[in-house]
């Protein structure tokens, strides 16, 4: 392991990373955000997902330093409260956790599906390939939102109301995962097609290795770097999609707002002066996505500038 | 020929590159037709590789050398014809039945940069075939064997943890050879193993291959386009043109008295050191592609001796009195 | 060429068939149109009767075959709310969306090509870094956020641009196409929506153009062009750019389809009366026939766009010449 | 153009002096070409041979100042028709490129722009250097195509590179090089990507045209046999330096430097006698990477006859007797 | 003067009988005229009927205005009224409302008798829904050979595309969902009206923020409804006037006693009512854009009981829970719409919080309205949100749909997903239905409200306010009313 680490530390990626301030800064910010979001039960002043903690009387309390703020209750309400009287800071932290879990989870689902399909299509070729790639085309021509609406409605019916709240996160993960796998499938297929031509694959076949083993052990590891690169973008996309779904009323349950739904909920207050309800979570989401995107751009620039989704 | 290790009999290999049904759709004269685009990579090739020899296959780019090599190691299934290994037909065997032959027939590839999996350290690259074919070996035995083979090909055993990109082209080619050797094969198909290397390295690899042939009693099917190399290493030489066999003879016969017009042209074109060159045979006429094969003899559009039968009829390989096999109408009819 | 088109049409049919099948089998999950068609206090029987009349009670496959039969005759069903054929509704809304999408596509092209090329030629300059940085920020802000911020700034605070609708329209082709592109009012209405829509795709394209351009600039033929003593202008714009275009076109085709999908959010915020807004409305009302028709039409549009892309690709790339992209 | 000195007939066409090309990279500066000097006279054909990575192409490109970033000419001078090109700017180089000096690249598949017709690619070259109408330029192009034996050139002008075979493409590249009647052609491995039969044709053509037009030819290749057939003089490069330079005949038949000797010995055709017998003579080891060239003579770790001095200081090119050959080896007298 | 108008939706059709909805009625008041209409105060104002009298318990006679012209040019007569009633009784949406009516008899050209099958208290109220249509114009077949008077919801029909009424505005252009353009009708009979709007351009803008932005940026002159969260902003704006008015739409939760045994216990239901603080909710979530409710009908409606005030007492709620034996609380499910009522989702969210305080853990799911009602009918959750606006503008209507024992045959209790069933309450309502003495009737309805209140039959939350906002200079105030049918014919713009 140390050897592998050493190799990694010596790699081109790490070298470029050390010289790139933007990448370092984004990674730093991202790490801070990640840690604070996953540590939210310990660091957040309140638990906003506990309905009993809602206090409507505190609704729309401005940030502590503003007139009308609640400096006496610090650390709660530092950044004010949302329309339901939840401490905004805590809600943002919890919301960011939900957003991140959805983003990462959805990407995992996408990646697994997309890689499996892309790998099969690319390696087996012929009919299988045509079929699978047509499927991806069809899927691409729907928008994610459309797919999400369909699947979301189906899930809700299938699981009933009682468990929906509990299952909302996994369901959204599935929805976004199912809606965006073609990006992966296409990318993986493209690199499988490139790898397949290389002679080490033929060498493996000459050894007599079975197809699945060649696919998984030889080709797959060599297609992972593009997967890694698009994954960053896809995480950001998945979080945006979740925000978009919330905007249309298909997102997380209101009692467990994600960053996206928090923004949407606050939007209506933007014109009325309670700007903090949307601007704080909005900025947090932008910063989060931006840092992921910047890291993704960095990886892409270093590893393979020609990787673009859908290629 | 009882000594034949690998017999290639009337092998035909076509690649259909026309794609899906929809892509084949054409309109001719207003009616929809399905048109297939077929690459005729091998047309009726017959060869025997004899035990212990080095059979070289030469020819220009795209003439089907690699396809032949791949057909022999069952990477391609021929459209017709058969491949036999020690008189056992292997070309249509299912993968499981083929396994025993995989250890006897191995292959070395052209591109030293693409033929090693960049994500595996040398150790794993070499272990994998061994463990796969001999699952009952224990770790120590495997390690020992790997070390031994690395030694044989001249790669330091201490480099086993390195990844391929840390090696030079020549060293990678050695590792490639080691991977083929590790299952202890009888016959190695080498597809242009040295054409990507520098002259000084070429010599090293060629020498290594010759050494190994002696020590392991290997048989080589050696694919190359470099006639100078072939002249050095080959026992017998087969010359191919556009998927067809033109001439098959011992190296000496071939280089001293080339009989097929194409062989003659090829030999005259080899650059030699120094000004004094033999007279070049100028080939004229359009190059054909394996997609639109000319009728009759595939070489006739460029052949200086072409006459009527060449345009109509595919020449069949005829064994000459001295054992060489030549497929040429003009030669058969005594015109050359 | 004919064969190519027929191939594409067949392909479109398959795609649309699959889409309609999926849409159809899922449509009951979207909602019940009858609910929205009647007042709350209308009795349950009346509604049940209406469902029966509309054939909503038949098994899905019967409904689907009915749909297919009609679809073959060019009838994608009636929009329950617009009280006319769904196709007609879509055709009447399509110009708005197409104008929006194409003006965004134009904007994307006009902006991404010079930006991408500039940052490819001078990767280290400050301006290139700024272009990339700003575009990454752009893609990190949700569309609806961008859109509302724009409205709040340019319409409400500054009062420069109108916040909703398409403005004054001029009928073209005997009224079949109402365009907003011919009047200042129409164009001023178009500015913000197309900007919002552009903001999501532009960064991708800038990076795409840049990466491809950088790749092409490494190619031998660019070096060769230099060796021939050609001017920089000719090298960049004729030799490098033409080759950059190929992958950009390929990706662009797919992305254009995605752009159509993104109109849902943009049109909603700007009350732009096009397909996206219509889609959202149809979802709200459970207008299932319209939804299925929408999906079929968008699927067809996707195929059409891709076909066009292939044709253009063929024009740019002599090696293809309409045999299909690989 | 105004700055062009009238070429005095005595001055050599090209005189490269102590050329050094370096690539500043992340950790350190890589010197790809070091202290390279040679001259090329009008109508003379000079070969530049060596292994992959020896710096042949870099030397060739630096004459046109076409070294890709971050590489740059970090020393020495390149006198072309008496004028030093090294300090010239891009702007000043452009009139020379493709006009006075033409270049032929290695891979004809990659050199021609796939999306432009060959007509366009020829006409643009002419128009970049001559005030010509399209028509006139086309006529010249067609003539030149005919000269390189492309059948029915009028029709071919409208075709795209992929519609030609490899050999034809290389002829077109040669035709483009000849369009402006340059006084120097740099051919970087013009035949490596081609089949032997085609290679022979292309070499014949190149030789014939160069002789006919009286142009200087710098032929870069790794194939000694090719060099020996085409060139008057040859320079052998190893790890960024010229280790031996002299009349081809001499170098091929009586190599002075141990590297040249080893290289020649390693050629399969050298002992043309008995086929299928015996091992080839081989040079052990590989050429060092330019990141860590050994001290002293770069060849010394592989050299069979090295002496102590070899690892200490780098030998300069020294004449070997009256043969006209210069070799950089401590052992050469 | 031109009025640029934006609402959340445009009328579903141009045929006033196609659908019974607020939008359609608003439209009807622009292009058509009713026989009588409500005044701001809740009284009746003559329109096409100049006066009326009750001839016998089953007959009311209307004397029609003379010299009234339809937009098509034909004269308005009693025949049109009879024809319209006939048509109403064929309309799926209206036939329920007009059930009590049997026929309209044209006595002469300008006199018409409306007959009911039993004595009916709401004849005049129903007359506000009677917008006489141009019988001549709508008779015959159109160019597709279809009868012009057909009422078609989902397909082409003449009446869906064309309109001829007697109203102040004449249809110029309509693009469904995009724009509706109306011009002042030159021959409008009401010369007394000060209305000076010569043209209305009506754009539907469904998105709240977009609608407000359109007003703020000057793109439109009038918007309705106004989202409560933007009240402060609009009030601050000097050039804009905001008018709100208590509405008649009650928002309630129904507690399903069949699904959830705990909810069958009146103590639990009352505890829930006590726990939900609708006053704070209205204050914070709706910015006061609603009136907290303790009963179904708002003040001004028959049966209003001022003593039934909203209940809020957390301690009491806890005590009740304890009494009922649920000190530890229980789990329950809840569904809500998320785009049907003003801030519906937020209200439910807040409710979840409030119920958590008495130990009831609520799992909340929200649906867009298109998917909601099926789930509502299927009673998939224990607590379900419903808002109700009586089409008859009469308070008995609330109970008939929301509180009476569900009965498939009669259709009573159609939206009673709480399955509250109280025979006594049903009995009172049946009596009220045939009681024509308004005072007595009001007393009966008051009793109904009290029973429901004491039983905790449902949880009343609030009546949604109606809201309109317009530019200064548009005299908004005089023409708006609690039914939300602004009388644009009378609108004056400076
Ligand atoms: N998998 C394949 N699909 C389609 N065509 C193929 C395939 N493999 C080879 N071909 C075609 O078959 C012909 C023979 O190819 P092959 O690789 O055998 O030639 P070769 O003699 O090895 O050439 P080279 O010297 O360039 O390696 C070529 O025209 C090639 O394009
Ligand atoms: N852009 C570059 N950046 C860094 N190093 C470079 C670059 N281009 C060339 N080099 C280095 O310069 C050295 C000489 O390269 P050059 O291309 O001249 O070799 P060559 O002799 O032409 O080899 P070949 O026969 O492979 O073409 C190589 O070792 C290479 O690593
Ligand atoms: Mg090959
Ligand atoms: Mg080179």
TrEMBL record, chain A:
One of its GO terms (cellular component) is plasma membrane. It comes from the Bacteria. It is found in: Cell membrane. GO terms for biological process: transmembrane transport. Its main location: membrane. CDD domains: TM_PBP2. The chain crosses the membrane at residues 21-44, 98-124, 136-155, 274-296. Keywords: Cell membrane, Membrane, Transmembrane, Transmembrane helix, Transport. It is a multi-pass membrane protein. Residues 96-296 form the ABC transmembrane type-1 domain. Belongs to the binding-protein-dependent transport system permease family. This is Putative binding-protein-dependent transport system inner membrane protein. It comes from Megalodesulfovibrio gigas (strain ATCC 19364 / DSM 1382 / NCIMB 9332 / VKM B-1759).
UniProtKB/TrEMBL annotation, chain B:
Gene3D superfamilies: P-loop containing nucleotide triphosphate hydrolases. The keyword Transport applies. One of its GO terms (molecular function) is ATP hydrolysis activity. GO terms for biological process: peptide transport; transmembrane transport. InterPro entries: AAA+_ATPase (IPR003593), ABC_transp_ATP-bind (IPR050319), ABC_transporter-like_ATP-bd (IPR003439), ABC_transporter-like_CS (IPR017871), Oligopep_ABC_C (IPR013563), P-loop_NTPase (IPR027417). Residues 25-267 form the ABC transporter domain. Keywords: ATP-binding, Nucleotide-binding, Transport. The keyword Manganese does not apply. PROSITE patterns: ABC_TRANSPORTER_1, ABC_TRANSPORTER_2. PANTHER family: D,D-DIPEPTIDE TRANSPORT ATP-BINDING PROTEIN DDPF-RELATED, TRANSPORT ATP-BINDING PROTEIN. Belongs to the ABC transporter superfamily. This is Putative oligopeptide/dipeptide ABC transporter ATP-binding protein. It comes from Megalodesulfovibrio gigas (strain ATCC 19364 / DSM 1382 / NCIMB 9332 / VKM B-1759).
From TrEMBL, chain C:
GO terms for cellular component: plasma membrane. The keyword Transport applies. The chain crosses the membrane at residues 12-30, 100-121, 133-161, 181-206, 244-270, 290-316. Residues 94-313 form the ABC transmembrane type-1 domain. It is a multi-pass membrane protein. The keyword Transmembrane applies. InterPro entries: BPD_transp_1_N, MetI-like, MetI-like_sf. PROSITE patterns: ABC_TM1. Pfam families: BPD_transp_1, BPD_transp_1_N. GO terms for biological process: transmembrane transport. It comes from the Bacteria. It is found in: Cell membrane. Keywords: Cell membrane, Membrane, Transmembrane, Transmembrane helix, Transport. Belongs to the binding-protein-dependent transport system permease family. PANTHER family: ABC TRANSPORTER PERMEASE PROTEIN, DIPEPTIDE TRANSPORT SYSTEM PERMEASE PROTEIN DPPB-RELATED. This is Putative ABC transporter. It comes from Megalodesulfovibrio gigas (strain ATCC 19364 / DSM 1382 / NCIMB 9332 / VKM B-1759) (Desulfovibrio gigas). The lineage of its organism: Bacteria, Pseudomonadati, Thermodesulfobacteriota, Desulfovibrionia, Desulfovibrionales.
From TrEMBL, chain D:
The keyword Disulfide bond does not apply. Residues 14-264 form the ABC transporter domain. This is Putative oligopeptide/dipeptide ABC transporter ATPase. GO terms for biological process: peptide transport. It comes from Megalodesulfovibrio gigas (strain ATCC 19364 / DSM 1382 / NCIMB 9332 / VKM B-1759). The keyword Calcium does not apply. PROSITE patterns: ABC_TRANSPORTER_1 (PS00211), ABC_TRANSPORTER_2 (PS50893). NCBIfam families: oligo_HPY (TIGR01727).
């Amino acid at each position: 392991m140390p050897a592998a680490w050493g190799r990694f530390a010596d790699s081109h990626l790490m070298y470029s990373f050390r010289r790139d301030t933007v990448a370092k800064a984004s990674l730093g910010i991202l790490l801070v955000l990640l840690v604070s979001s996953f540590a939210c039960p310990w660091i957040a002043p309140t638990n906003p997902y506990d309905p009993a903690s809602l206090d409507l009387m505190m609704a729309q309390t401005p940030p502590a330093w503003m007139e009308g703020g609640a400096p006496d209750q610090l650390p709660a309400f530092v950044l004010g409260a949302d329309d339901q009287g939840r401490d905004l800071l805590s809600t943002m932290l919890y919301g960011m956790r939900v957003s991140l879990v959805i983003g990462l989870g959805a990407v995992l689902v996408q990646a697994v599906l997309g890689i499996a399909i892309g790998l099969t299509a690319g390696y087996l070729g012929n009919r299988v390939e045509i079929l699978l790639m047509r499927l991806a085309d069809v899927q691409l021509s729907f928008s994610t939102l459309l797919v999400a609406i369909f699947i979301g409605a189906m899930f809700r019916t299938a699981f009933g109301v009682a468990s929906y709240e509990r299952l909302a996160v996994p369901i959204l993960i599935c929805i976004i995962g199912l809606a965006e796998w073609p990006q992966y499938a296409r990318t993986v297929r493209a690199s499988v097609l490139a790898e397949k031509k290389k002679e080490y694959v033929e060498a493996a076949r000459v050894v007599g290795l079975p197809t699945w083993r060649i696919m998984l052990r030889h080709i797959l590891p060599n297609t992972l770097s593009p997967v890694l690169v698009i994954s960053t973008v896809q995480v950001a996309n998945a979080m945006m999609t979740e925000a978009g779904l919330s905007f249309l009323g298909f997102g997380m349950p209101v009692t467990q707002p994600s960053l996206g739904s928090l923004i949407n909920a606050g939007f209506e207050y933007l014109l009325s002066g309670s700007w903090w309800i949307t601007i704080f979570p909005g900025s947090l989401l932008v910063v989060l996505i931006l840092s992921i995107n910047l890291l993704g751009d960095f990886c892409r620039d270093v590893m393979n500038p020609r990787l673009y989704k859908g290629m | 020929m009882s000594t034949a290790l690998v017999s290639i009999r009337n092998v035909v290999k076509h690649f259909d590159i026309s794609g899906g049904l929809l892509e084949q759709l054409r309109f001719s004269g207003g009616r929809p037709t399905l048109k297939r685009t077929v690459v005729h990579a091998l047309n009726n090739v017959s060869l025997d590789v004899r035990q212990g020899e080095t059979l070289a296959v030469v020819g220009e780019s795209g003439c089907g050398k690699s396809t032949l090599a791949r057909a022999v190691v069952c990477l391609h299934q021929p459209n017709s014809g058969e491949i036999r290994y020690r008189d056992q037909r292997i070309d249509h065997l299912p993968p499981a039945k083929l396994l025993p032959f995989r250890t006897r027939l191995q292959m070395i590839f052209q591109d030293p940069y693409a033929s090693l999996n960049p994500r595996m350290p040398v150790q794993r690259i070499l272990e994998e075939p061994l463990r796969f074919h001999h699952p009952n070996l224990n770790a120590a035995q495997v390690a020992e064997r790997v070390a031994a083979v690395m030694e044989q090909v001249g790669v330091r055993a201490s480099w086993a943890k390195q990844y391929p990109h840390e090696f030079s082209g020549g060293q990678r080619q050695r590792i490639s050879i080691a991977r083929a050797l590790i299952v202890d094969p009888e016959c190695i198909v080498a597809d242009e193993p040295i054409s990507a290397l520098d002259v000084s390295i070429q010599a090293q690899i060629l020498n290594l291959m010759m050494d190994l042939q002696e020590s392991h009693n290997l048989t080589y099917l050696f694919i190359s386009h470099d006639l100078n190399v072939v002249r050095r290493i080959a026992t017998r030489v087969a010359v191919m043109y556009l998927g067809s066999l033109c001439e098959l003879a011992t190296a000496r016969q071939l280089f001293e008295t080339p009989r097929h017009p194409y062989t003659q042209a090829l030999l005259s074109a080899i650059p030699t050191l120094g000004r004094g060159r033999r007279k070049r045979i100028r080939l004229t006429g359009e190059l054909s592609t394996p997609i639109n094969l000319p009728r009759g003899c595939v070489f006739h559009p460029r052949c200086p001796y072409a006459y009527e039968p060449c345009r109509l009829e595919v020449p069949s390989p005829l064994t000459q009195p001295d054992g060489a096999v030549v497929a040429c109408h003009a030669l058969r009819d005594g015109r050359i | 060429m004919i064969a190519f088109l027929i191939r594409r049409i067949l392909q479109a049919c398959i795609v649309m068939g699959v889409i309609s099948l999926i849409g159809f089998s899922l449509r009951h999950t979207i909602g019940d149109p009858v609910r929205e068609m009647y007042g709350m206090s209308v009795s349950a029987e009346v509604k049940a009767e209406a469902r029966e009349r509309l054939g909503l009670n038949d098994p899905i496959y019967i409904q689907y075959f009915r749909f297919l039969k009609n679809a073959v005759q060019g009838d994608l069903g009636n929009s329950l709310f617009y009280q006319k054929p769904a196709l007609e509704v879509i055709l009447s809304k399509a110009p708005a969306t197409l104008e929006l999408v194409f003006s965004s596509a134009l904007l994307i092209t006009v902006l991404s090509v010079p930006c991408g090329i500039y940052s490819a030629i001078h990767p280290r300059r400050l301006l290139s870094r700024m272009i990339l940085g700003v575009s990454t920020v752009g893609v990190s802000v949700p569309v609806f956020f961008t859109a509302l911020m724009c409205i709040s700034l340019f319409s409400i605070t500054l009062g420069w641009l109108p916040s909703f609708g398409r403005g004054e329209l001029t009928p073209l082709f005997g009224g079949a196409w109402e365009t907003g592109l011919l009047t200042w009012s129409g164009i001023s209405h178009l500015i913000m929506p197309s900007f919002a829509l552009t903001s999501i795709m532009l960064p991708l394209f800038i990076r795409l153009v840049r990466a491809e351009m950088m790749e092409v600039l490494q190619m031998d033929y660019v070096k060769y062009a230099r060796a021939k003593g050609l001017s920089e202008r000719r090298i960049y714009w004729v030799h490098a750019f033409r080759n950059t275009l190929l992958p950009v076109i390929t990706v662009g085709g797919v992305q254009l389809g995605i752009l159509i999908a993104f109109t849902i959010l943009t049109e909603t915020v700007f009350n732009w009366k096009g397909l996206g807004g219509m889609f959202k409305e149809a979802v709200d009302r459970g207008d299932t026939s319209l939804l299925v028709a929408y999906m079929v039409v968008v699927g067809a549009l996707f195929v059409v766009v891709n076909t066009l892309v292939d044709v253009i690709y063929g024009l740019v790339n002599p090696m293809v010449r309409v045999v299909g992209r690989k | 153009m105004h700055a062009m000195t009238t070429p005095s007939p005595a001055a050599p066409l090209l005189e490269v002096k102590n050329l050094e090309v370096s690539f500043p990279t992340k950790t350190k500066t890589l010197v790809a070409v070091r202290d390279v000097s040679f001259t090329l006279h009008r109508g003379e054909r000079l070969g530049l041979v060596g292994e992959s990575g020896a710096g042949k192409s870099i030397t060739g490109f630096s004459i046109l100042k076409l070294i890709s970033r971050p590489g740059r000419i970090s020393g020495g001078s390149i006198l072309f028709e008496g004028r030093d090109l090294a300090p010239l700017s891009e702007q000043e180089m452009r009139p020379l490129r493709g006009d006075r000096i033409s270049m032929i690249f290695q891979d004809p598949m990659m050199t021609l722009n796939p999306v432009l017709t060959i007509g366009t690619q020829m006409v643009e070259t002419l128009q970049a250097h001559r005030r010509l109408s399209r028509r006139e330029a086309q006529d010249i192009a067609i003539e030149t195509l005919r000269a390189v034996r492309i059948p029915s050139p009028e029709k071919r002008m409208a075709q795209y590179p992929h519609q030609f075979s490899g050999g034809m493409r290389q002829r077109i590249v040669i035709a483009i090089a000849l369009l402006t009647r340059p006084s120097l052609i740099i051919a970087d491995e013009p035949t490596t990507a081609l089949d032997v039969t085609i290679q022979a044709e292309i070499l014949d053509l190149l030789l014939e045209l160069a002789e006919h037009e009286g142009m200087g030819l710098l032929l870069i290749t790794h194939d000694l046999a090719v060099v020996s057939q085409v060139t008057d003089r040859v320079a052998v490069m190893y790890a960024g330096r010229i280790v031996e330079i002299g009349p081809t005949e001499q170098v091929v038949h009586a190599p002075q430097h141990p590297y040249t000797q080893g290289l020649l010995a390693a050629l399969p055709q050298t002992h043309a006698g008995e086929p299928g017998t015996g091992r080839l003579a081989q040079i052990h080891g590989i050429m060092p990477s330019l990141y860590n060239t050994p001290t002293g003579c770069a060849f010394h770790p592989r050299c069979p006859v090295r002496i102590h001095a070899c690892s200490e200081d780098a030998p300069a090119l020294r004449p070997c007797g009256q043969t006209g050959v210069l070799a950089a080896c401590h052992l050469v007298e | 003067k031109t009025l640029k108008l934006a609402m959340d939706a445009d009328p579903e059709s141009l045929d006033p009988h196609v659908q019974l909805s607020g939008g359609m009625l608003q439209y009807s008041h622009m292009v058509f005229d009713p026989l009588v209409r409500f005044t701001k105060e809740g009284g009746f104002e003559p329109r096409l009927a100049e006066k009326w009298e009750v001839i016998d318990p089953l007959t009311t006679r209307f004397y029609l205005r003379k010299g009234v012209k339809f937009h098509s040019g034909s004269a308005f007569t009693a025949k049109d009224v009879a024809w319209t009633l006939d048509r109403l009784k064929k309309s799926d949406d209206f036939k329920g409302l007009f059930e009590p009516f049997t026929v309209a008899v044209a006595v002469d050209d300008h006199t018409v008798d409306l007959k009911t099958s039993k004595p009916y208290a709401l004849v005049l109220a129903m007359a506000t829904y009677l917008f006489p249509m141009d019988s001549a114009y709508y008779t015959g077949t159109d160019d597709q050979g279809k009868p012009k008077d057909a009422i078609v919801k989902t397909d082409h029909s003449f009446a869906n595309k064309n309109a001829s009424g007697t109203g102040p505005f004449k249809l110029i252009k309509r693009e469904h969902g995009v724009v509706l353009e109306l011009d002042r009708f030159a021959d409008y009979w009401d010369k007394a009206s000060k209305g000076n709007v010569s043209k209305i351009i009506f754009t539907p803008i469904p998105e709240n923020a977009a609608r407000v932005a359109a007003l703020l940026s000057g793109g439109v002159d009038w918007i309705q409804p106004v989202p409560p969260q933007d009240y402060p902003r609009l009030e601050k704006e000097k050039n804009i006037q905001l008018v709100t008015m208590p509405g008649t739409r009650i928002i309630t939760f129904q507690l399903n006693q069949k699904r959830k045994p705990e909810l069958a216990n009146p103590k639990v239901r009352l505890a829930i009512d006590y726990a939900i603080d609708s006053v704070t909710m209205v204050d914070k979530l709706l910015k006061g854009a609603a009136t907290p409710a303790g009963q179904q009908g708002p003040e001004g409606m028959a049966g209003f009981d001022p003593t039934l005030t909203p209940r809020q007492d957390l301690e009491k709620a806890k005590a009740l829970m304890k009494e009922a034996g649920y000190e530890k609380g229980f789990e329950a499910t809840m569904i809500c719409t998320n785009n049907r009522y003003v801030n519906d989702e937020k209200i439910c969210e807040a409710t979840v919080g409030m119920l958590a305080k008495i130990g009831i853990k609520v799992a909340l799911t929200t649906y867009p309205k298109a998917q909601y009602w099926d789930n509502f009918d299927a009673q998939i959750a224990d607590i379900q949100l419903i808002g109700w606006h009586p089409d008859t503008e009469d308070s008995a209507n609330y109970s008939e749909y929301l509180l009476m024992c569900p009965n498939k045959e009669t259709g009573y209790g159609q939206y009673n997903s709480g399955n509250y069933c109280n025979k006594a309450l049903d009995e009172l309502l049946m009596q009220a239905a045939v009681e024509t003495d308004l005072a007595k009737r009001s007393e009966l309805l008051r009793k109904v409200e009290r029973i429901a209140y004491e039983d905790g039959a449902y949880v009343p939350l609030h009546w949604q306010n109606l809201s309109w906002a317009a530019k200064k200079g548009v005299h908004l105030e005089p023409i708006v009313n609690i039914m939300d049918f602004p009388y644009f014919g009378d609108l004056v713009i400076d």
